[in-house]
Amino acid sequence: MAVTTMSELIGLALKGQKEAFEQLYNETVNEVYRTLYYLSGSHTDAEDIAQNVYLELYRNLDKYDHSRSLQGWLYGITIRQLHAHRRKKWKEYRNEQKQRKLQTAPLPANNHVSFAGDTQGDFVMEELHDLPEKLKEVLVLRYINDLPQQEIANVLSIPIGTVKSRLNQALVRMREKLGDKSI
């Protein structure tokens, strides 16, 4: 298939060409997965959420505004699915807590997520995951996914000034935690 733009792929996918959606998936899945992994810290969660991202994308292809960036639209879906996943996990956690209280069993120990890779990378990932979600989101979208600040504002539905402020706060906190002024 010799399709050059994402808009063309969406158009073909809307016409029922499965290969077009498959190509769209193949060209974007690594960015989506990477974003989800950096924001969730879990390979399993990133895979689960990515599946939901592409289900929502497929179901809503007809709602895509071709005058806007597909990347921004896709990251918007990604962030919404991440938030939905966290809400679901939080509800599950709260329900488990209630059940344990009813059974008068002690609460579980802190479940610490370990990351694969080198120890310095693990340290950076741990520090990244200690940031508040709002700061972590803008940091990952800007420096991992190279989105411009305006695109981040559109994806998160916040003013550009808020993006700049959150980026600054995130960088200051990471510098403090890592003791590195080069960040």
Summarize the structure.
With 183 residues, the protein is mainly α. The chain is 73% helix and 0% strand.
**CATH homologous superfamily identity of the largest domain:** RNA polymerase sigma factor, region 2, helix turn helix motif
Provide the number of structural domains: 2
Number of helices: 8
The amount of beta strand, in percent, is: under 5%
Question: What are the low-pLDDT stretches, counting only 5+ consecutive residues below 50?
Answer: 105-118
Largest sheet: none
What structural class is derived from the secondary structure elements? mainly alpha
Quick one: overall form?
globular
Q: Calculate the mean pLDDT score and round it.
A: 83
What is the succession of H and E elements? HHHHHHHH
Explained architecture:
- By secondary structure, the chain is an all-alpha fold.
- It has 2 domains: 1-113, Orthogonal Bundle (Rna Polymerase Sigma Factor, Chain: A), CATH 1.10.1740; 117-178, Winged helix-like DNA-binding domain superfamily/Winged helix DNA-binding domain (Arc Repressor Mutant, subunit A), CATH 1.10.10.10.
- Helices cover 73% and strands 0% of the residues.
- α2 (18-40) crosses α4 (70-103) and α2 crosses α6 (133-144).
- The chain starts with 5 loop residues before the first helix and ends in a 5-residue tail after the last helix.
- GO terms for molecular function: DNA binding; sigma factor activity.
- This is RNA polymerase sigma factor.
- Keywords: DNA-binding, Sigma factor, Transcription, Transcription regulation.
